[in-house]
Amino acid sequence: MTDLRTIAVTVNRSRYEQTVEVRLTLADFLRQRLGLTGTHLGCEHGVCGACTILFDGRSARACLMLAVQADGHDILTVEGIAPGPDALHPLQEAFRDHHGLQCGFCTPGMLTTLVEFLRDNPDPSETEIRVAISGNLCRCTGYQGIVDAALDAARRMRAAP
Amino acid sequence: MSGLIGRSVPRLEDPALLRGQGRFIDDIRLPDQLEAAFVRSPHGHAAIRAIDKAAALALPGVHAVLTLDDLRPHLRIDRLAVGLPSPSYRQERNRPALAADEVVHVGEPVAIVVAADRYIAEDAAALVAVDYEPLPAVGDCRAALGPDAPPVHRGAAHNLLAEFDMGYGDVSGAFAGAAHVLRESIWQHRGGGHSIECRGTVARYEPTEALLTVWTSTQTPHAAQRLLCDMLGRDEGQVRVITPDVGGGFGPKLVFYQEDVAVAVAALTLGRPVKWIEDRREHFVATTQERDQYWDVEIALDPEGRIRGVRGALIHDHGAYTARGTNLPYESAQTVTLAYAVPAYRLDVKLALTNKVPVTPVRGAGQPQGAFVMERLLDRAAQALGLDRAEIRRRNLIAPEQMPHTKPLKTRGGRAVVLDSGDYPACQQDALTRADWDGFPARQRAARAAGRHLGIGLANFVKGTGRGPFEPVTVRVGASGRVQVQTGAAAMGQSTKTMLAQIVADALGGDMANLTVTAGDTAAIANGIGGFNSRQAVMAGSSAHVAAARLRDKLLAAAGHLLEVAPQDLEIVGDRVRVRGAPALGISFGELARALGGTPGFGLPGGLAPGLEATGQVVIDDMAYANGSAVAEIEVDVETGAVTVLKLVLAHDAGLILHPLIVDGQIVGGVAHGIGNALFEWMGFDDNCQPTTTNLGEYLLITATEMPRVDVLHRESPSPLNPLGVKGVGECGVVPTAAAIVSAIEDALAPFGVRIAQTPIRPAEIIALIEAARR
Question: Does the global pTM surpass 0.80?
Answer without folding.
Answer: yes
